[in-house]
Amino acid sequence: MTTLTVRRGPEFTRILGLGVARGENAVPNEDLIEPINSSDEWIRKMTGIVTRVRANRDTSVIDLSERAALGAIAQAGIDPSEIDAVILSTISFPHITPGGAPVLAERLGATPAAAYDISAACAGYCYGIGQADALVRSGAARNVLVVGAEKLSDFVDPEDRSISYLLGDAAGAVVIGASDTAGIGPTVWGSDGGGAELIRQTSSWLDIRDNRDLPFPTLRQEGPSVFKWASFKMAPVALQAIEAAGVTPEDIQAFIPHQANTRIIDQLVKQIGLPAHVAVGKDIVDSGNTSAASIPLATERLLRDGDAKSGDLALQIGFGAGLVYAAQVVVLP
Amino acid sequence: MALSNDEVLAGLAEIVSEETDIDTAEVTADKSFTDDLDIDSLSMMTIVTLAEEKFDVRIPDEKVKDLVTVGDAVDYITAAQA
Description:
The complex is a heterodimer of chains A (333) and B (82).
Chain A: E1 12-22, E2 25-28, H1 40-47, E3 51-54, H2 61-76, E4 83-89, H3 100-108, E5 114-118, H4 124-138, E6 143-151, E7 169-179, E8 188-191, E9 199-201, H5 205-210, E10 219-221, H6 223-244, E11 254-257, H7 262-272, E12 279-280, H8 284-287, H9 294-304, E13 313-320, E14 324-331
Parallel strand pairs in A: 4-5, 4-6, 11-12, 11-13
Antiparallel strand pairs in A: 1-7, 2-3, 6-7, 8-14, 9-10, 13-14
Helix pairs in contact in A: 2-3, 6-7
Chain B: H1 5-20, H2 41-55, H3 61-64, H4 70-81
Helix pairs in contact in B: 1-2, 1-4
């Protein structure tokens, strides 16, 4: 009987390189408060945000992705031709088709890498890491470029008090490849579609097709419900990721959650029971909520500020619209 | 066994005090969470979640807006336990 040949990859993977690109403009709370009848003090109290980064009107998701990816590839020390797959996580690439990943791969000279987008919102970076780890270990790809990129300012409503004022534009990228030692722990991931309406687009494209009087679609959220879900349902997921990696909270040096709200981050630290020595990513204060880009941004910030260092164990967890979530323990590049 | 209104009030006051640093004696049935105790929507969700765990009840998110006073919450929890 004829048997098929199957590929097998290396036993371990790790993050070989990290790169980020923040929107060109720091937008302070003062610039956004009038249409929502709010104040700098209220936004800081409720979210922790002081400024958010937003890109110029003519800067695209692909532009941000390219800048971040070039940094990741340079740190990884590989040639773009050695990338066998490009995974772009975004909810703000403004085309149903084509996806953004093939365009990005072409720009980077990573062709003919497999290239596809994933829509997992604020969990998208951790979803991508989980996929990249599996692709490399299965032998399906030598190196995988994972990019979380958003230009959310294209989908905000200045008069919306639920989510628009939180959002920023940025990209974070990593190259995942083979490693002599384990650098990415098991991904604990899942979804809860019962909460799909908690973070949503105001109108579907078909609604707009059928009613041209509808405004351009923007984002909305049920803030308190999302806060409750993220603060209390995600702590057990984070603990599962720690356990799956065979470590304890004491072994973790950095906690890098999705940058949704500092009060969610603080509550997660409490609920997970992280020790005081753990450095906690809070890039949201200056960058805002950049969805799929927020975890690599916060990682870069911790490393740049010296609060974490290469080789440290970091617990990262993404959660958001869907509802979807994913967590893993990684070794920082 | 279901707790009395007074027992639920005492337990809820502990949760509110833990979340806000307000003295438990200040957390009385007639107090409004927002107007008197200055509890915002996110702190309210934390209090609700901790109350769900402590009293083994479920308080749906859409019900939270109806819990204007501490007494409203005590009544809801007591009824939900029955």
